[in-house]
Amino acid sequence: EIVMTQSPATLSVSPGERATLSCRASQSISSNLAWYQQKPGQAPRLLIYGASTRATGIPARFSGSGSGTEFTLTISSLQSEDFAVYYCQQFNDWPPRYTFGQGTKLEIK
Amino acid sequence: EVQLVESGGGLLKPGGSLRLSCAASGFTFSNAWMSWVRQAPGKGLEWIGRIKTETDGGTTDYAAPVKGRFTISRDDSKNTLFLQMNSLKIEDTAVYYCTTVGVMGATYFDYWGQGTLVTVSS
Predict the structure, then answer these.
(1) pLDDT over 90 at B105, yes or no
(2) Residue A71 clears pLDDT 90, i.e. is over it
(3) Which DSSP helix (H) or strand (E) runs through B98?
(4) Is the C-alpha dihedral spanning A14, A16, A18, A21 positive or negative?
(5) Are the Cβ atoms of A89 and B108 closer than 8 angstroms?
(6) Residues 16-75 of B with CB under 8 A from A
(7) Which pLDDT score is estimated for A93?
(8) Distance of CA A28 to the CA centre of its chain
(9) Which of A8, B24, B89, B118 has its CA 20 to 30 A from that of B81?
(10) Cβ separation of A100 and B107 shorter than 8 Å?
(11) In whole angstroms, what is the distance from residue A2 CA to residue B94 CA?
């Protein structure tokens, strides 16, 4: 089973600054990596799929990179609405399994 | 606009059964692979299972913790996804989300419902 590990668990950043969130897979997952944002009391929202493709309607300040086992979500200039929990998620095709990381809480510094 | 609306959650005792529904609109439901993802209170996200379109065989895949207890089905005539949950355990307590599976390789979940809470308690 592939394990996804996100770091840090909590990240404190000031509005306007850059935030960098990391996700590591226990074995290579090619580019089968997605990122989600979840705010309190809301459903998750897809931000990035295929490691680097922004989902429909996602602002350009969100970018994803990486392949294999190391992935990064970068938010270039934090807005107030960006403070939330972020999850990475991988897909393994045999047997079909989707696995999430434990999340990174992005909080206001 | 894509909408997914879950219903059927509630409070029940260990060993009980429950069926969740997810009403879909705003897209061609019969063309979409669908999935269920859950989130225990204060915890992270956990994939439960998925169902392919009838065109792709209508087959299902499940995560290990629910395999043999949960069943995903769909009624394309009613644009509705179902999750039948049997032999429920306390650890099944969670908000259950209905999602669409992304068309680009089926490796992600692009639309999510608001979730329905299932509480299993003695």
Answers:
(1) no
(2) yes
(3) strand B94-101
(4) positive
(5) yes
(6) 35, 37, 44-47, 50, 61, 63
(7) 83
(8) 17
(9) B89
(10) no
(11) 23
